[in-house]
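Our consortium's second objective concerns turning raw sequence data into structural hypotheses that experimental partners can test. To show how far this objective has progressed, the report includes one record in full. It was chosen at random from the queue rather than selected for favorable results. The single chain below, 516 residues long, was entered without modification.
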Amino acid sequence: MSWIGKTAGVSAMYQAMSSLGFAAESQPMSHLNFSGAPKGASVLILGAGLAGMAAAYELSQAGYKVKILEYNGRAGGRCWTLRGGDTFTELGGEKQTCEFSDGNYINPGPWRIPHDHHHVMEYCNKFGVALEPFCQLNYNAYLHSTKAFDGKPQRYRHIQADYQGYISEMLGKVVKQGALDDELTLEDREKLFESLRSFAALDENGAYKKSSETSMRRGFAIAPPGGLGPSTQYSEPLDRTALLQSELWEHISKGQELHHMSTIFQPVGGMDSIAKAFAQRVGQFIEYNAKVTHIDQNDTGVSATYTVNGEEKVASADWCVCTIPLSILSQIPMKVGSAMQMAIRAVPYDASIKIGLEFKRRFWEQDDTIYGGLSYTDLPISQISYPSSNFGSKGPGVLLGAYTYGPNAYEFTSLPPAQRIKQAVKYGAQLHPQYTKEFANGISVGWHRVPWTLGCYGMWTEETRKAHYEDLCNIDGRIVLAGEHASYLPAWQEGALSSARDAIQRLHNKIVSIGA
């Protein structure tokens, strides 16, 4: 998406992302109306991710008989947390064992909950899932380019303060030179100039330069002391040309993106707290280790053929809510019309990898005073996320040492797991030299190599949404699909939950309308 922002600006980038589903706003959770539910009606739910479990919870509360078939031996799907002792086997048979110390974890899938994700927040509140702040933006974290500043990482606050300062200084000159006289009144020009001074710490002449005011934005070379400490020294702004050419400024709006705005949350102790809360309420309906191999329907019901430990079984119900990822569903014979079949096959899934790295101590806090937040880099790891909990603890800590998509993800997973970890440590050491000495162990999850998803999330385009989205979401006979792929919020748990609630409401309405 970066080319959109560079060539057409932020507004065009937001519109493009909205059409693709990335910047869409979530709607408040609406009330479900299941009045008139026929007694004894049954619904088969395929998949015990959040969409499937939400559907099961709400339908069972309304009196429907539900059964869930789940491929894995646990509930939650991509709502997943890895802790010490957990294992994961990817395509090809490579098995990894997480060696993190007690209390440490990594969320391979969703890892944050924006404040405006109403469905996730309301279920957390309803089920008593404890939340804590997730630090998305940290002005003391790093922005890094291998092609700028001799490859040395720069503090986020330096890039932001200096970029705002230089841009405001230049705009101030435009105002003073009268270039905006035809656009603004004299009073508006004066207000604009004063706002630029306030916004970017310009001096009385509109210049951005080393001063007490600019140092209050970007930090001091030597901070004001107590007692007889060394004298205060203001910090020197970065060279303007070097800053502009670095392109590091493209990261300074990260915290202003809709789903990255404060306040953001995370469940205390791991994202799977949400999955566990759902499973406590619908676990009695779940059959685990059930691999669906065929889905059939007729005028009176739906059936799914599946295997458990090599034994073939059949589950039947009056209706079906299918939440299986399209990357998998496209390979399962299913009796639906050509429109839905074409829609299922029209949506590819993105490649993505996350790498969790445990270190012997929290050097990012102790040495670099980085408490939470993210650092960004043009290296293949793309970003480093620092833990947003247990600040100041003395034991080992875990970083998200890589989170990347597309070609970089494929390149990482072309390597054996141990080599991926080694590469992530090598790259991360360019931002934090302590990596090499302090590294303890790590684990990686490449979502395109996860057997039960074969990808991270459904990748819609404006064209495929226009051609196939309604066909994917419409009820086909007695089957309706749900999940993040059936939403305008792909890759988010909010998309899965809002999709599930919409699907089961429409399904119920159909059931009542035909008196079934």
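The partners drew two points from this record. The chain has 16 helices and 22 strands. Residues 345 and 363 are 47 Å apart (CA to CA). Both points have been shared with the crystallography group to help prioritize constructs.
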